[in-house]
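Hey L., structure's done. Input below.
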Amino acid sequence: MRTPSELTDDQLIELYIDGDNNAFTTIVTRHKSKIYTSIYLLIKDKYLAEDIFQDVFVRIIDTIKSGGYKGEGKFIPWAMCIARNMSMDHFRKIKRNPVIKTSDDKDIFDVLDFAQPGIEQKIIKEETYEKVRKLLDMLPENQREVVILRHYANLSFKEISTLTNDSKNTSLGRMRYGLLNLKKIIKKKELTEIF
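Output:
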């Protein structure tokens, strides 16, 4: 018999529906970093992102238990859609648009399961993540969102276009312009202030 980590998401969900709570724990462990990181990059508040992350999984559980999840091997895009919608709902509630602002909080990758690197490697990794986050903060919102969904959540452009209600070509264009803008930002003299 295969171990839970060898099973697909849909197989784990079937086990969960049949009463195996450990199967759902495997799903959460498998996808927590992608989902949390995407929420955090949209929300920019560690504690609020943690709350929304928990709410996302409560909604996922409720939907699965009610028979609303149809599977078809698309758990992560479905879960990311819920996460994105719940993040946007937060901004609608406080009547403002999501704006990613520069933050000194270096805890964004605490939820990632990295092997314990040496202190030097850990410092370099934290500094790199902070630099990338600051670069992302300089992009227009629609470009930033596509870059985050593509590179942090590993979604396809088709999945991104479904989440954002845009065409695939629009998502591709935003990614292209986002990357071009990042290159321009890196070439600018002001970049030294970031780093």
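The CA atoms of residues 120 and 126 lie 10 Å apart. Residues 96-116 have pLDDT under 50 and may be disordered.

-- N.
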